[in-house]
Design a protein that fits this description.
The protein has 3 helices and 5 strands. The chain is α+β, with helices and mostly antiparallel strands. The protein has a 3-stranded antiparallel sheet with strand order 3-4-5, with helices on one face. The chain has a two-stranded antiparallel ribbon with strand order 1-2. β3 and β4 form a beta hairpin. α1 packs antiparallel against α2. The protein starts with a helix and ends with a strand.
Length: 170
């Protein structure tokens, strides 16, 4: 994209210069023609020669721009191939680290008075009791808080901020 912009910009600048010099020649010629009508043919010849010279200048500038653009394209074609390889390699380790962190498993066991249960089991019982009691679906649960009281052999729970003394037996 940059080389296209550079090429277009150079061509535009060269065209503007040629147009400017042609306009100046025409203005000068028109002024001279008005001043002396007998010199009109000489002025026409001068204008034609100036326009030809301007056209040659534009062609030369265009060729220079094209050569510069070709060189820039060659350089940019080489550079991305070298730069793309390290970027791809740099992204792979980051993804691996994320996967390793996500693999960690946690499990909490509660043991008392010859009984044992996990927090997962306890939360599952609370969800089951809540859905049976309210008639709602598990998908409607936004948050659950469970309070285990081993001396009472009960686990009190609060679902979605509603606390009315609900509990499950342990």
């Amino acid at each position: 994209m940059a080389t296209k912009r550079t090429t277009k910009k150079a061509e535009t600048m060269a065209a503007k210069k040629a147009a400017k010099s042609a306009a100046e020649v025409k203005a000068t010629a028109a002024a001279e023609v008005k001043a002396e009508p007998s010199k009109a043919e000489a002025v026409k010849t001068a204008v034609v020669e100036t326009v030809k010279a301007a056209t040659e200048t534009v062609k030369a500038a265009t060729e220079t721009v094209k050569e510069t653009a070709k060189e820039a394209v060659k350089e940019t074609a080489k550079a991305p191939a070298k730069a793309a390889a390290p970027k791809a390699e740099a992204k792979k380790p980051v993804a691996r680290r994320t996967k390793k962190v996500a693999v960690a498993a946690e499990e909490v066991f509660i043991q008392y008075a010859g009984k044992e249960f996990t927090t997962k089991d306890l939360v599952a019982e609370v969800k089951k009791a809540w859905t049976e009691m309210t008639g709602k679906k598990e998908e409607e649960i936004q948050d659950i808080k469970v309070y285990v009281k081993t001396e009472e052999n009960k686990a009190y729970y609060v679902v979605n901020g509603e606390a009315e003394g609900h509990y499950v037996e342990l």
